[in-house]
């Protein structure tokens, strides 16, 4: 960094090209620079990396960053190198020769920031290196991986504390995560042995995300409509099963969409290739199971569509949160069908062989998972503000109107469901509380299915009593009754509809009202309101700049968003800088990038602005 000492603001501007810190960043940076531990709990996209990267550049020695995923390290190191910061990673993707070389350069003090996989920490050659250099700080990214309660538990994270004990002195420790539940938080602080850490929690609200739940039965139609309306945008479509991923991806490709796929059943090779194609915008649409995404820092993901409802709000928030990391408007759309609940129930009920847990613990985990699934289902069926629902789930209380989710933008009307509800309860009773939602629905609607004949339900007194009511509406009412405790959907093997103490109330209390969307308006409304750009910029110029970015990215073999984010390009297309100095004022343009790319971008801007 030369002889001149920069302060944190100068570092922010010079290397990262930003003018001000975001909420929480400064507190963490100051704490770490004072030599105290810090623990940042901030949502995806909040800017956790900067919280340790800035102090790392101001500290005397080296900062080690422990990170769970190889793709994540590569991305981060790529970004740092682009910004003109010397950084490297040490993980299993390096050949033994490359690894030795990297360690050698690291010993010579070439790197200020070194990313390392947790498994490496206690290996002999790494320890030898660590004992001989000056380590100022150890940062644990994605720190929830240390918690056995989380889904991302990594046993190797438990070695971090041991590693720190082997060092001759204790470096400053910082930990970061986007997972906020209390158990996980406590686990992190204890397992990493944080010493009296400054805990910084910023709000979980991601203001640039638009939340939508869609119950249209034609899921594929919805996806195609969305993709047609938002061409050239990058996004992820999550499915519950590998099979759905394959089918949907194939169908999209047949319809001319540049899509690729990712799930745990593919070869390592194909996964790496598909991921790369997505990162480089060769295939801007990724169809994937939840195996995809941790460690994907692609900043220009404009939408995340859930083709199926995920298992819990935690997963949903994390997956949907991969949209809009650059702070620009992005859409999170969940395509809900009641059948998703059944699949999730099934997945939860799968026997898990895990030596880590006793039988009781396994049962406890299953119970918790079921409770979480229930909350997730409530999210999909509520008429209340979706954003508020999520935030409450994480213990944050806001107003119950955000104005930026499909519920807030939908007009509801009260539907009198008294008769249907009574018919449903009668049917559950008359069949001896033995059947699930599908049988009940089909019986009431009078469907002509083999299963009903087999169950003897075609002869039931309720058969066809709701012939006039569409099947989806019957399901919706059953869900409503379950949400409000008038019935219980439960079961060990498969979900069965049962009566509760409150079932009788349906016959006494009149009328029973359920809020439903004014169908037609809902669709048009969402189309208009979802994802409108906040910035006013020159679209044609933006397109040109995107092309230039892609060229450069290909030349340098880095993903386009590492050259410049969408936000930077939009800002350029709005400001149309003419000089180097003006170029430096663009969001995300630091000195290094200005030197490297300034001329090229200024040229295109000048040409286009004639
Ligand atoms: P996460 O908290 O999910 O780890 P990242 O550290 O990856 O988030 O940051 C998300 C995005 O926000 C990155 O593109 C980063 O450059 C940007 N960012 C971080 N801090 C700032 C800031 N102070 N001003 C503007 N953009 C920022
Ligand atoms: Mg991060």
List the helices and strands and how they pair.
Blueprint: H1 8-16, H2 25-33, E1 38-41, H3 48-58, E2 62-66, H4 70-82, E3 87-90, H5 96-107, E4 113-116, H6 124-132, E5 135-140, H7 159-166, E6 172-177, H8 182-191, E7 198-201, E8 209-214, H9 219-229, E9 234-238, H10 242-254, E10 259-262, H11 268-279, E11 285-288, E12 301-306, H12 313-320, E13 330-335, H13 338-349, H14 359-381, H15 386-393, E14 412-416, H16 418-430, H17 437-445, H18 450-455, H19 471-483, E15 487-490, E16 496-499, H20 505-508, E17 513-517, H21 519-529, H22 539-556, H23 560-563, H24 566-575, H25 580-584, H26 591-608
Parallel strand pairs: 1-6, 1-7, 2-4, 2-5, 3-4, 5-6, 8-13, 9-11, 9-12, 10-11, 12-13
Antiparallel strand pairs: 14-17, 15-16
């Amino acid at each position: 960094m030369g002889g001149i000492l920069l302060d944190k603001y100068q570092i922010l501007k010079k290397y990262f090209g930003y003018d001000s810190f975001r909420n929480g960043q400064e507190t963490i940076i100051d704490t770490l620079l004072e030599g105290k531990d810090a623990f940042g709990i901030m949502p995806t996209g909040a800017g956790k990396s900067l919280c340790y990267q800035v102090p790392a550049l101001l500290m005397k020695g080296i900062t080690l960053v422990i990170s769970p995923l190889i793709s994540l390290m590569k991305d981060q190191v790529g970004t740092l190198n682009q910004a003109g910061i010397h950084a490297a990673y040490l993980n299993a993707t390096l050949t033994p020769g490359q690894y030795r070389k990297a360690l050698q350069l690291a010993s010579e003090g070439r790197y200020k920031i070194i990313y390392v996989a947790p498994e490496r920490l206690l290996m002999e050659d790494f320890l030898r290196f660590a004992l001989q250099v000056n380590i100022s700080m150890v940062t644990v990214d994605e720190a929830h991986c240390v918690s056995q309660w989380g889904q991302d538990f990594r046993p190797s994270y438990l070695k971090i504390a041991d590693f720190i004990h082997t060092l001759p002195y204790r470096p400053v420790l910082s930990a970061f995560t986007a997972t906020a539940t209390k158990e996980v938080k406590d686990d992190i602080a204890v397992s990493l042995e944080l010493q009296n850490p400054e805990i910084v929690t910023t709000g979980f609200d991601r203001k640039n995300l638009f939340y939508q739940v869609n119950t249209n039965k034609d899921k594929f139609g919805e996806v195609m409509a969305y993709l047609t309306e938002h061409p050239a945008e990058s996004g992820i479509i999550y499915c519950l099963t590998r099979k759905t991923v394959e089918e949907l991806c194939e169908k999209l490709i047949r319809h001319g969409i540049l899509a690729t796929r990712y799930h745990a059943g593919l070869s390592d090779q194909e996964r790496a290739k598909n991921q790369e194609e997505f990162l480089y915008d060769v295939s801007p649409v990724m169809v994937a199971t939840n195996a995809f995404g941790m460690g994907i820092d692609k900043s220009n993901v404009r939408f995340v569509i859930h083709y199926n409802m995920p298992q819990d709000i935690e997963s949903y928030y994390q997956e949907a949160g991969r949209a809009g990391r650059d702070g620009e408007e992005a859409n999170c759309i969940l395509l809900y069908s009641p059948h998703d609940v059944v699949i999730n129930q099934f997945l939860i009920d799968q026997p898990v062989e895990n030596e880590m847990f006793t039988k009781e613990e396994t049962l406890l985990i299953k119970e918790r998972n079921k409770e979480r699934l229930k909350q997730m289902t409530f999210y999909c069926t509520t008429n209340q503000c979706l954003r508020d629902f999520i935030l409450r789930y994480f213990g944050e209380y806001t107003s119950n109107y955000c104005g930026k989710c499909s519920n807030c933008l939908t007009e509801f009307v009260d539907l009198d469901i008294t008769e249907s509800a009574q018919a449903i309860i009668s049917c559950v009773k008359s069949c001896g509380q033995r059947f699930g939602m599908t049988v009940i629905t089909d019986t009431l609607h009078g469907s002509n299915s083999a299963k009903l004949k087999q169950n003897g339900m075609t002869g039931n007194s309720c058969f066809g009593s709701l012939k006039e009511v569409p099947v989806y509406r019957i399901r919706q009412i059953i869900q409503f009754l379950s949400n409000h405790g008038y019935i219980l959907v439960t079961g060990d093997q498969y979900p069965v509809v049962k009566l509760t103490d409150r079932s009788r109330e349906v016959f006494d209390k009149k009328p029973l009202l359920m809020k439903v969307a004014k169908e037609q308006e809902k669709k048009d409304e969402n189309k208009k309101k979802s994802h409108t750009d906040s910035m006013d910029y020159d679209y044609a110029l933006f397109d040109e700049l995107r092309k230039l970015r892609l060229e450069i990215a290909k030349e340098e073999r880095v993903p386009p968003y590492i050259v410049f984010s969408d936000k930077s390009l939009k800002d350029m297309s709005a400001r149309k800088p003419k000089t180097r100095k003006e170029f430096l004022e663009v969001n995300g343009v630091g000195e290094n990038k200005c030197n490297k790319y300034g001329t090229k971008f200024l040229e295109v801007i000048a040409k286009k602005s004639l």
